[in-house]
Design a protein that fits this description.
single chain, alpha+beta, Heat Shock Protein 90, 3 domains, five-stranded mixed sheet, 10 helices, about 55% helix, about 10% strand, disordered C terminus
């Protein structure tokens, strides 16, 4: 069923016949009023009623016919049935009435065209929304169902690696390790997809607690040192202009913020060339704690800035490894849920900066100290 038929059902034959007779009846009534009175009495303006009704209920061709008939009858009433001299003012009034009928017919036709166009666009939007919903439901179900066999494959490979099914030769060990890493990468991608679709539909649930961004950044960088080393990329941490290490406390979800740092660091590694350096800069402001990831790659093209944090968007710059276009999108979701801001900019003379800032923890964080056990007094 086309959108046109969905919103504008073609009436049955008897329905068209009835509306046609109603329009004809209205034209007849106005005709009688016009031709039973002197030309000075202009009832032709009343033809607007059957014109508007024909535009709403009949085909476009019928609307044009009704408009033309009304215009002709309005002018014809100057001489019929009264065969006498007609004043110039009466002729002018009749011409004005005729022009008014023409404008009414034209505007009625345009209004019907716009209504049909809007209805078709609305139907297309609804169809696209339904298609997107079905596609996302399918993707969510698929990613969820694929996790189980991938987890099973990883555990099986680890069992082979630990020689539970027999001895493993030195030549086979690197192959098993590569397969495990590949399956873990696929599992990470599936989990990211599942999280994104869940966040879009249900929102992101955070488990907030006081977090020191310094500690989180150091742990994340340490976990990615091997990946960076394999690309010959060096990671370093700096603590503001003074380079004096101090705590940056925020109220956040440890797991989610660690994912943001991981995504931004992997993005920087992928955009870096061999021998490049990546800096993690941590700064404390009056109301925010700021984390910046600086690389010395090729930078960001101006046309890419509006799309950087969109889902599945991949930059066009030179990269050592292509991403999925999901990391920055998920990072934006997480930072927004924390009430923070994430952004990107180009560095001078080369490279890019990705940063985010989070509100400072509302209350000072006091380290928890276990109370000493009192010795019993005898």
């Amino acid at each position: 069923m086309t959108p046109h038929r969905w919103y504008f059902h073609t009436p049955p034959q008897n329905g068209r016949f009835n509306w046609g007779w109603i329009v004809a009846g209205l034209v007849s009534v106005v005709f009688l009023l016009e031709f039973c009175t002197p030309p000075g009495f202009i009832f032709g303006y009343l033809y607007t009623a059957p014109i508007v009704l024909a535009s709403a209920r009949l085909q476009r061709r019928r609307t044009v016919q009704v408009t033309a008939i009304a215009m002709v009858l309005t002018l014809l009433n100057l001489w019929i049935p009264h065969d006498s001299l007609v004043e110039i003012a009466t002729i002018a009034n009749r011409v004005i009435a005729t022009m008014a009928l023409l404008v009414t017919g034209f505007l009625s036709d345009r209004n019907r065209y716009y209504q049909e166009a809007m209805a078709q666009q609305q139907a297309q939007i609804q169809s696209k929304e339904e298609l997107m919903r079905l596609r996302e439901d399918f993707t969510s179900t698929l990613t969820h169902d694929l996790k189980t066999p991938i987890l099973g494959a990883i555990e099986t490979l680890k069992a082979f690696q630990s020689e539970r099914f027999g001895s493993v030769s030195p030549a086979q060990n690197p192959v098993l390790a590569t397969m495990i890493r590949s399956h873990q990468t696929s599992l990470h991608l599936l989990e990211t997809l599942l999280d994104i679709y869940r966040n879009d539909t249900e929102g992101l649930t955070l488990h907030l607690k006081p977090i020191d961004l310094n500690v989180l950044a150091e742990e994340t960088a340490r976990a990615l040192f091997d990946l960076a080393a394999s690309r010959r990329v060096y990671i370093s941490l700096r603590y503001g202009d003074s380079d004096f290490r101090r705590s940056l406390w925020v109220n956040g979800d440890t797991l989610q913020l660690q994912r943001v740092l991981t995504n931004l660091l992997i993005n920087a590694i992928n955009h870096s060339r061999r021998g490049d350096r990546i800096k993690i800069v941590l700064e404390s402001q009056a109301s925010y704690q700021v984390v910046k990831i600086l690389d010395t790659g090729s930078g960001i093209k101006p046309e890419e800035f509006p799309h950087l944090f969109e889902r599945f968007y991949q930059g066009q710059g030179d990269r050592q490894a292509k991403g999925t276009g999901l990391g920055l999108y998920l990072s934006r979701q997480i930072i927004a849920a924390h009430g923070g801001t994430i952004w990107a900019e180009n560095r001078s003379p080369a490279g890019a900066l990705f940063g985010f800032k989070l509100p400072v923890a509302s209350s000072p964080v006091v380290p928890h100290v276990e109370p000493a056990t009192a010795n019993p007094v005898g």
